[in-house]
Amino acid sequence: MNEEKTPSKLEKILRAGHLAVTSECGPPRGSEAGHITKKAEMIRNHVDAVNITDNQTSVTRLCSLAACIHLKMMGLEPVLQMVTRDRNRIAIQSDILGAASFDIFNILCLSGDHQSFGDNPKGQNVFDLDSMQLIQTVRHMRDEGKFLGGDSIERPPRMFVGAAANPFADPFEIRVPRLAKKIAAGVEFIQTQCIYNVEKFELWLKLARERGLTEKIFILAGVTPFKSVGMAKYMKNRVPGMDVPDELVKRMSGVAKEKQPEEGLQICVETIQRLKEQKGVRGFHIMAIEWEEKVPEIVERSGLYPRPNVN
Amino acid sequence: MIVAKQKPIEEIIETLKGYNKILILGCNECVTVCEAGGKKEVAVLASALRMYFMNQGQEVKIEEATLERQCDHEYLEEIRKTVDQYDAVLSLACGVGVQFLAEKYMHTPILPGVDTCFMGVTEERGVWSERCQGCGQCILAWTAGICPVSRCAKRLLNGPCGGSSKGKCEINKEVPCAWQIIIDRLNELGRMEDYERLIPIKDWSTERAGGPRKVVREDVRS
Q: ipTM of this predicted complex?
């Protein structure tokens, strides 16, 4: 796992053996770029790369690629999230080239939430490719220097290829085989779903280790701090594929309302500290939803600061 | 079969405005099985419309007929001699039948009486569900006989997504996750190793994406 394939800073940090830290910013529901640059500014010194979500939960927002360009111009390292819900293979390859032309060096390949969750439930979806096939597509464009149609690409994209993994979705028995399948498709790093059920995550990781999968890719453990007990309950009951144990909800409801944000941060820091010791965890993906200002504190309290300088 | 459901009567009435002699034309095939457009539904709809127009004080004549099929010339020809008597034909066949009628009888307005929904099965009386979208290139051999194209909300050929929860799809707790069913079948068949086979990018040109489709069999053409 030492040979660098792209100029990605995230890749450099991971291959150098550091625990990587990524975070993410959701673009605004409007064209004011300041929203995203302000969020990015808050976290720039505490993370190695910043994911930009792609119309997450199918709610229409400023596009991921444009937001990535804003970050790039600020000197940050963006991770372009790309879902296959809204683009066919022409648009996908075209957007990848567009991103490559701005030297965006990381991509996260996703299928995307179904459009019925968002603000256009009556719209069509595309799903010309699925997330595995998107991984294959980026790797094909990068490594073969070719379009899916077979023609050569002038200056192929140089992207470190990531995908998501949800150890908590059903059925559990295929969660590790599914990871193996993504690796076979060509994925190089994984950002996991938010981890609250740490035991279940550790079991998934152990099974992945036993198959030797953790030697083949870099797994970044996903964490999201609760802001309140209400959020914990919402995540538990309303978000598909989320596994929030009862004791965490109980722990959040056990403290006064004004102390709940601190309790949420504390749970998040404890999770990171515990998972840092796990073989196969190569970093953390901190998704502080509309709470980006707390990312530096989480990073510092978890002992992940300062960030390594690899350039 | 092709599964359809009856249109709301208000919508049908709206489309029938201005016509005084109407033929309601049922079909003895799929729409009879799914109880949307067979002889029985023709009779019920005809009675309801007669009642409506009578209450409105309008003289509208409604007649009934049901053909063996509306997707074959042979049966559609049965109304050739009488079709000109009507101001409009309300077909309770699927969209296929409605169109074939429209192509054949150039001078008669042909209106749909049902919404054509999908190709599916009768799960139990009164419950029909989708099984096939006619993608033109069957992959069931690789997915344990269960179709992710028609039954996964995201058409994932390499599913399930992270939204699969307790066997259900993220879009609705009533919708089974197709990939859960596929995995259960692979387990039953002792073929879980098939799960890790990557299904390649699909050629969608044989599906809707490729434009209107046609099957030609030279060996059976007359």
A: 0.94
